[in-house]
């Protein structure tokens, strides 16, 4: 008994010493708290099967991916939870028993994505800026892993329902934040409206700028409409109508033209799937909408015209950037300047090389994924990415056309939103919401085609 008491007293003494040391170190290295929390969490989960643990960890990756820097240590805003969880997930995946057969139906886009990354790594041989290229390659790998992990771990409809529930909950919170910003003019900590002091009510939600936010709303509104109209009731229908009204108001407030167009197309595709069996009702709904738009044009024609044509400076600047990038492609014989390096040339074309403030970032995104990618890696590197996009177009259209359920409309809607954000936002390399969305689209294609094959056999 005395020996047991001595051992227990020794453990208490060690714990006290450990916390004393921790109290001294933490003020100087706050990040150690995050490491400690992860270590304790891993210890508590040591008896959980690795595959199951990785599934729940992936849900954490998705949630933290949407919340981004808002789950960061105050002293280290770039060191947020997503970065920790995705690296931890990658490491644990290496020790997990693999089952790649579940990827058979979607292996082509994954292989094309890998080829795109490998060619980007090859471009390090001639890149104009190794640092920018290494950063871009990291984001490519991160994007691929999000796409891959979504398909790998969400391998049945029960898991799909769980992940969609989390996505919808975060989406609703983001709508509430955008509405609050639009009505009050206040913005969250990492919003450009707060950082750059816009002084207006353009919302950004949990993202940085308005174009990203409007595209995000277009990306994930199909999931919200699925939850509301999967089993239609009068109460859910009323909520759906109210949600569409609020979202339309918020997107108009963002003043994002690409986001508005994507949102309109996505809603139209979803409404057709909801009411396609009531063709007269759907036709009446469209006609009512068109009549309403006509009244808006009559009453507010000048304002609506200014919405699309009033950003002359922005439009001219983008046209100049596109001309610069195309000229850059020709100067390098369409072989590429190195992955992630095009923004450096765009910045120089816009601002020159002298009288640049030290605090100013010396890169400027091309605001066009396709042109920027062509300029970065040339025709050879761009080709697999084009094939990747073509695969998505063909399969999402086929799923939409061949299946009656509302779930089948989500992949093509995500693809429409992706097309908008690829030319509307400044850069989507580091935008986790984009690659999570594509992962969701590929997962749905995989599950729906798997279900169809089972029914045929």
Automatic annotation (TrEMBL):
It is a multi-pass membrane protein. Residues 243-386 form the O-antigen ligase-related domain. It is found in: Membrane. The keyword Protein biosynthesis does not apply. The chain crosses the membrane at residues 15-43, 55-73, 79-96, 108-126, 132-154, 163-180, 213-229, 234-252, 258-275, 282-302, 377-394, 406-425, 431-448. It holds the Pfam family Wzy_C. Keywords: Membrane, Transmembrane, Transmembrane helix. It comes from the Bacteria. InterPro entries: O-antigen_ligase-rel_domated, WaaL-like. PANTHER family: LIPOPOLYSACCHARIDE BIOSYNTHESIS PROTEIN PA4999-RELATED, TEICHURONIC ACID BIOSYNTHESIS PROTEIN TUAE. This is O-antigen ligase-related domain-containing protein. It comes from Listeria newyorkensis.
